[in-house]
Amino acid sequence: MRLLVVCLGNICRSPMAEGALRTRLQVSPLAGRVQVDSAGTGDWHVGEPPDRRAIACARGFGVDIAMQRARQLQARDFHDFDWLLCADRANVRDVRRRAPAGHEDKAALLLDWCGIQPGGEVPDPYTGGPEDFRQVWRLVDSAAQAVVARLAAG
Ligand code: 4NP
């Protein structure tokens, strides 16, 4: 199973979700059997580490995401990954727009796909403060636990 988490810039939400997912998977029966990566629909931050506020927030929850580097969604991602789990509806729309024919259904809302919030979105914390980042972490970490449960259930 290969999961790609997608947001706009790939420096806040999807790197935090990637970190939460890696950490939850490592201590699960699925350890080593699920590949996780993240990407952005935009290209503004390609090659950069996550936003320093995202790094600090994740570190506060015991997870190191500083080694991640932003990249933009690319065509081969639709072949390389089973699911493209998006932070918000605009991401889903942008991902579907770029999907090769027949691959549109691989794009889903992360919070919806894992079952914790039907139709739910992870709010963009980019223009927010530390509490907005902590709220994002709690959301994506809850999602990570639910993703593990969904995959473990087969
Ligand atoms: P992200 O947040 O999509 O969670 O990584 C953003 C990061 C950068 C920008 C927007 C959102 N930006 O416009 O540069």
From TrEMBL:
This is protein-tyrosine-phosphatase. It is an enzyme of class 3 (hydrolase). One of its GO terms (molecular function) is protein tyrosine phosphatase activity. Gene3D superfamilies: 3.40.50.2300. The keyword Transmembrane helix does not apply. Its EC number is 3.1.3.48. Residues 1-150 form the Phosphotyrosine protein phosphatase I domain. InterPro entries: LMW_PTPase, Ptyr_pPase, Ptyr_pPase_sf, Tyr_phospatase_low_mol_wt. Pfam families: LMWPc. Keywords: Hydrolase, Protein phosphatase. It comes from the Bacteria. Belongs to the low molecular weight phosphotyrosine protein phosphatase family.
